[in-house]
């Protein structure tokens, strides 16, 4: 591992994704549906259902200021993964604490403010811990589910490394969406949330065995057996 991916961000990259961070690419207002917020992270307000017109099933991640290398890196990584749609800024309603000048009391007020945002394709499936099979399963049943998911995630991690030269680090259960067939068997798993700092570049010449060993250690940490 060398550094958070991407290692370098060019002026072309900055202009492509956020117009150099100067907020000249306005995506629109009321695109993020607050009632359907999916996830809150350390560097974002949340991931929301997308309210604009599109032929795809989309979500929009509303980010915190400023547009830094981590934000550019997330847009670039999503682009590499085929999930990126657009980026810029949106007018978004946030609840802020405002002091009433007459009474001096603090009150909550909804205000529109501009925030950087990334529009991306929705990843299907759901986290394993949110499935009925997990919630109603025994320890042995949950261990079987974990064992079924591991090779699927490993295959995706290895494929990403081989094609793009980075690895996905944040393998917690909430960042893996799983899919069942009609018989209730787990047949696929897909990584979710490619935001900073979960993606790390790998130096050239790294052997496959080293990546596999790293994955196994990381998996045991995030997905322990019961």
Protein model, in words:
This is Protein kinase domain-containing protein. This protein is of the alpha+beta class and 226 residues long. The chain folds into two domains: 11-121, Phosphorylase Kinase, domain 1, CATH 3.30.200; 126-222, no CATH class. Helix content is 29%, strand content 31%. It has helices spanning 11-18, 69-80, 132-135, 139-164, 208-222; strands at 26-29, 32-33, 44-50, 58-63, 84-99, 106-121, 126-127, 166-168, 176-180, 186-191, 199-201. Strands 1-5-6-4-3-2 form a six-stranded mixed β-sheet, with helices on one face. It has a three-stranded antiparallel β-sheet with strand order 7-9-10. Helix 4 packs antiparallel against helix 5 (208-222). The chain is globular and about 60 Å long.
């Amino acid at each position: 591992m060398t550094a958070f991916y991407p290692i370098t961000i060019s002026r072309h990259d900055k202009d492509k994704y956020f117009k150099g961070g100067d907020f000249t690419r306005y995506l629109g207002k009321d695109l993020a549906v607050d009632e359907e917020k999916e996830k809150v992270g350390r560097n974002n307000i949340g991931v929301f259902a997308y309210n604009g017109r599109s032929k795809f099933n989309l979500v929009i991640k509303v980010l915190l200021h400023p547009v830094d290398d981590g934000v550019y890196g997330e847009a670039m990584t999503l682009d590499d993964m085929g999930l990126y749609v657009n980026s810029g800024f949106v007018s978004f309603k946030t609840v802020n604490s405002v002091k009433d000048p007459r009474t001096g009391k603090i009150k909550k007020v909804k205000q529109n403010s501009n925030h950087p945002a990334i529009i991306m394709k929705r990843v299907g499936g759901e986290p394993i811990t949110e499935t009925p099979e997990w919630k109603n399963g025994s320890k042995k049943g949950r261990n079987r589910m974990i064992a079924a998911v591991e090779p699927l995630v490993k295959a995706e991690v290895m494929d990403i490394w081989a094609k793009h030269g980075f690895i996905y680090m944040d393998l917690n259960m909430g960042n893996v969406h799983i899919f069942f067939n009609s018989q209730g068997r787990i047949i696929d798993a897909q990584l979710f949330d490619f935001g900073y700092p979960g993606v790390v570049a790998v130096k050239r010449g790294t052997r496959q065995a080293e990546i596999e060993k790293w994955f196994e250690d990381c998996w045991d940490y995030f997905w322990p057996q019961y």
